[in-house]
Amino acid sequence: MNNFQEKKRRRSKTPRVCNNEENMEKLVHKEIEKRRRQEMASLYASLRSLLPLEFIQGKRSTSDQVKGAVNYIDYLQRNIKDINSKRDDLVLLSGRSFRSSNEQEWNEISNHVVIRPCLVGIEIVLSILQTPFSSVLQVLREHGLYVLGYICSSVNDRLIHTLQAEVNDLALIDLADLKDTLTLMK
């Protein structure tokens, strides 16, 4: 027999004497740890139940669940930023601002245009006054844009037009010129 096996054998033969107080401390510690593990398991299950299916894929480790939750929170924060940006654009386009009365009058009689990149190319949000919409489409065609989607809504008695246009090469399109052209249309 080797040295390690002898020591192991000796340990198992000699019973360790523990007093009642040590046993109680161990039992209390064991019970506290058991409750902590149960609470953590319950909390992870709650977290998992709050995540959409695309962020949970099968039975995963708790660290993967936490990563999924972090990714979901990041996703929600990006969505909040996008929605806030769109809300700000709509507020701008609706002509509601807290400027002087002369600027307010100018806001109410001018076109407003916001252009930003999107997945398919660019998104154009505009509020035009006394301009036929066909003229807007003509300007877009002249700039090499192809309209893929269109939504129109009414905000404070103004029509807000939202277009998504496909762009083959964004570098070939002068977005500032496009914005100026759409803003100055009559």
UniProtKB/TrEMBL annotation:
<keyword id="KW-0805">Transcription regulation</keyword>
<dbReference type="InterPro" id="IPR015660">
    <property type="entry name" value="MASH1/Ascl1a-like"/>
</dbReference>
<keyword id="KW-0238">DNA-binding</keyword>
<comment type="subunit">
    <text>Homodimer.</text>
</comment>
<dbReference type="GO" id="GO:0046983">
    <property type="term" value="F:protein dimerization activity"/>
</dbReference>
<protein>
    <submittedName>
        <fullName>Basic helix-loop-helix (BHLH) DNA-binding superfamily protein</fullName>
    </submittedName>
</protein>
<dbReference type="InterPro" id="IPR011598">
    <property type="entry name" value="bHLH_dom"/>
</dbReference>
<dbReference type="Pfam" id="PF00010">
    <property type="entry name" value="HLH"/>
</dbReference>
<keyword id="KW-0804">Transcription</keyword>
<dbReference type="GO" id="GO:0003700">
    <property type="term" value="F:DNA-binding transcription factor activity"/>
</dbReference>
<keyword id="KW-0539">Nucleus</keyword>
<dbReference type="GO" id="GO:0005634">
    <property type="term" value="C:nucleus"/>
</dbReference>
<dbReference type="GO" id="GO:0006357">
    <property type="term" value="P:regulation of transcription by RNA polymerase II"/>
</dbReference>
<dbReference type="GO" id="GO:0003677">
    <property type="term" value="F:DNA binding"/>
</dbReference>
<feature type="domain" description="BHLH">
    <location>
        <begin position="24"/>
        <end position="76"/>
    </location>
</feature>
<dbReference type="InterPro" id="IPR036638">
    <property type="entry name" value="HLH_DNA-bd_sf"/>
</dbReference>
